[in-house]
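re: ur question from earlier - yeah i can do the single chain one, its not a big deal. heres the input i used so u can compare w yours
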Amino acid sequence: MFALDIDEIDDVASRLKLVSRNKRNLYSFRDDDHWKEGKKNIRANLTSYLHEQGMTEPLGQITLVTHLRTFGHIFNPVSFYFIRGIEDQPLCAIAEVANTFNEQKLFVIGSEYFAKSQYREKQSKEFYVSPYSDLDTEFSFILSEPDERLAISINQSQKGKTYFFSSLVGERRELTDWNLLKYTLRFPFITLQIVGAIHWQALKLYFKRIRVRRKAANPELQKGKQVYLRKRHHFIDTAPKHRLKNELSI
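and the output i got, formated as tokens:
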């Protein structure tokens, strides 16, 4: 995965031969692969969204942990934004969760839940992620700000009982063409592998006769999502409008 200061992406693309922004390359960062508010780039879109949610503080450094397009393909089950203020104080973290129906939802964790370099909060899911998981469950986020190491966990619970555990850990590596080439050989077509692994696990659960939840069922419980129409390259925003430095690869 990549951890990028979003204000340095153009500099990264100009420095590295294997990375581009909004253009084809071995690795490509595309603003349209992330949350859209009709603005010109990812910073403007995040600023617009957070202002709609009631955040008035100006945004400083934004670090994004995500996958880039690899050989033109992308699928991010979840990307993470770590946002600081202009005085380098923690403002919020955002988990940008996606599903295989081209939908995204932002889970924002404010600075009131920040302590010891971690954001910790529980939030209602109300989003279709897996056909083997109910919509009215709860995410438990523990998001550590990336430094020399990365440690993130998102667990899922229902009626107070945790039944799904997930974690993401990594070590910092310098972002260079040489390192990218090595990791490409080690993990070729990484985002395709992610999609393949998701469907392989789903198939195994299907043969175990685990109950399947239909996407079309209970639309009233699918809240705050945004639908990305890939062929038209724009988003349909179904989210309710209510209140509420250095680049590295991991």
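The chain has one domain: 2-212+220-249. not sure if urs matches, ping me
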